[in-house]
Each structure stands twice: as C-alpha cells, then as structure tokens.
Amino acid sequence: MRTSLTCALVAVTLSPLPSTLPGQASRGALAPGTWAITDVTVIPMTGDTAIPDATVVVRNGRIVEVGATRNVRVPSEARRVDGRGKFLIPGLADMHTHLYSDGDVHDSVAKYELGVMVANGVTATRLMIGTREHFGLRREVESGRIVGPQLWLASPQFTGKEDANSRVVTTPSAARTAVKEMADLGYDFVKLTLFLPPPVYHAIVSEAKRQRIRVVGHVDPEVGVARALAAGQQIEHLDNYLESVLADSAPMRSSVSDRGLFKLANWESLDYIDDAKVDRIAGETARAGVYSCPTLTVFKKAFALGQSVEEIESRPDWSIMPPGLRTLYLGAREKYWSNPATEARRTRYVQVRDRLVKAIADSGGKIMAGSDTPEWFFGYGWTLHRELGSLVAAGLTPFQALAAATRHPADFLRATREWGTIEVGKRADLVLLAANPLEDIRNTGRIEAVVLGGRWIDAAERGRMIAMAAERLGGGGS
Ligand SMILES: [Zn+2]
User: Fold this and answer.
1) I need a labelling partner for 30 at 20 to 30 A (CA). Which of 51, 59, 243, 340 fits?
2) Tens of pLDDT along 236-284?
3) Ligand 1 is an ion; residues with CB less than 5 A from it
4) What CATH class has 92-412?
C-alpha cells in the first residue's frame, strides 16, 4: 500500500513542533494520507497489556486514533488494512549501530545500510561513532529522500590513542575543547572509548555538563564503573562491570571487558566473581538512573558461545556484508578461537553478564537494546531481534525486552512525545507481526510490514530493500 500516491489528502505541510523541548522534534519524514489497520492486536507498550480487536488510524504520518474496533470511526477516505490475527508493536530502536560507510566502504552505500534496518523493523537508531557525513545522512532521512530510521548521532570516539574516526584527547584542556566542538557541531552525545585517565575523564564530564551534551560509551579500567555511574555516563556493553565485581580476594584486577577479552590470562578472573557484588552494582546502576545498553548477543556469540563458519554464512546478514569485512572478521575469528578460554569460563562469562542485566532490570534500572552491528558478522536489524531474544534468555520478560527497544530508548533520547509507544499523536512508526511477541519474543522477527512515519512498507518492498543492499554491499554473492 502506497498511501502517498493514492490518497486525496496529500501534501499537508506539517507545522514544525514547538522548539521548547530540544530533541523532541521528529527526525524522519511523515507520509501524507489517511489509512487504518483494523481488527489487529495492538501491543501499545504503555503497560504490559495487549488490546485485542483494535483499530489504529493514521493521518499524515501520525497516529490519530487507537482503540477497540467498535469504538473507532475509520474515516471514509481511509485505506484499510485487515489486521486480523496479527500483532502491532511500536517501531524498534537499535541503540548501538555503526555503518560500513563510516570508513570501510564508500559513503554512497549508507542508504542501503539504513534501508536494511528499516526493512527489519528498526525505525530509530543511534550511530555510536559519528562522522561529519552522518549529519548529511540525517538531513536526507528527515526530508524523506532516504528511507532510513530516525538518527541519533554520537561524536567521533574520544580516546587516548589514535583509532578510526577518533578524537584523541590526552589532557583535560584538550578534552574540554573537543567536547565543546562536538556540541557546537550538533552531535547528540560525546562517545568515549578507552585510554582516558581520570583527569581527562572528569574534564570531559564537566565540560559536557556545561555544553548540555551527554556522555556515553565505554568505561576505561582506570575510570571504573563507580566513577562512570557518579558522572551519570550512559554505559555500553556492561563495560568494566566484570572488573568491578571481582572478589576482594581475587589475585588479579583485570578481567575481560573490551580488549581484555583477547588476553587469555584475563579469563581466569571469571573464577573470582563475587555474586553479591554483581547484585550490588546492579542496584547502584539503577539508583544512578544510568541506562545500560549491554549488547549481549554480539559478545556472547563472538567470544563465548562461538559461531561456526557454516552458521555465519547461512545467516541473511552475510549477504549484505562487504567481502573485505568478511575476510577481516573471519581472520579475527580464527585467531581468537585458535586458543580460547575454557568452556567453563566462557559459560560463566555469559552467566555473569546475564545476571547483571536481570539484576539491573529487577532493581528498576533501564536496559536498552543495542546490536553493535555490523560487528562480528552481525547484520542490521536481524541482530536487534536476536538481542531481544538474548535479553529474555537473561531473564527479562518479553515485555521488558520489548521496552528495551521501544519506550526506554525513547525515554533516554528524550523523544517520548514522538515515538516509543502506540498512542495518539505519536509518529506512526510500527511493526506488524504474524504472531504475538509477548508469548515468544522471537515473533518480533516475523514481520508482515513496517510502517515508518506513516509510510507502509510491505513484504515485497522489504525484500527489495534487502536485495538492493546485498547487491551494493555484499557484491551480490554470498
Ligand atoms: Zn560499537
């Protein structure tokens, strides 16, 4: 269904939203036209409930009515979609992504990358290492010239050592200058990686407060989780948590966060985890109000469970992976698995990270779903669905897992007026599913259609978006 071409109510210019709430403006195009999906089960994500036999009316890209079908009047001019037997959830947010086009392949493929995300139900994402090109990309998405998720942009990575798309800061004054620059350029976040000693870290955090830009990312071992929580930094990958839950009696201080993973000796630390500390730091995380994006799937599969070449090549993700990166990651995988940690320690690694996630959620902390695609063979969108499965495997309910990809990201991004739930006034960012995700979280992958700002993307169009990406990115082969 292409409402924009068929509906009489076309080309309504949207008045810009009042600018009193920064960050609340819609970051994507809204499609003109009126349509309704009828007799569908709506999972609005306003609470752990579903509304059976419901009708949702969309006008000019926004939801104008939601309710029991018998109570909703569908305008006569509206196109109708029969939703019987189907389930409607809010569009999904992937809170940790990168693009191939950030450096490894040409910028012009970015639209195909974003297209795959949308085809897989991702209607908002945060690019975790920003480049200047992303601002242009964001404008293209906002104007509707590129069909992509709404974009939030983190800065180039702040680090103490040169890296790809990095901003090297080694002194407090350089750190302050860099933070101001990122705020002036319009990045949404300052992204930290590693080698940032406490004085530099504190300079970043205090300048970021002055500039009203938030700090997100990794936690340097010298900084530690306690300092990051005190600073209100949003933490990715549960970085440095494993180090912070080592028993006092442990003979080591290093563990396997980040690059520590690649040092076999560090895995011994998994024998010295203090479970009481796990629960304690989870509670502290919740009380600090710090959102956590654990990216469980990529770490679990790449470094603990392992993935056979056969498994990797059989996934749809493989088809959109540039040949150069296939070679690179296959080599890295081979090297890592030539001398892996014991199975017992790898199992413990998964258990501890899962326990952290569940304990944070149980303590009232906010978990956000992030895929870290396209790292380690994991492709756009598909891996967000896997991450929801990983959150449920960690002990979250399907509702909690869905919240991690809908209302929690919207909350964190201060975009709740625009998206995150299915409610009147919100953008029509929706995913229509063939089966109930609250019964089995894997059902988020059974997509019938995606709606992006009111634009209906059916199975055929989704297929074309993925096929085009395979051709432009994966070289058409597999
Ligand atoms: Zn990342």
Assistant:
1) 51
2) 999 999 999 999 999 999 999 999 999 999 999 999 999 999 999 999 9
3) 128, 372
4) alpha beta
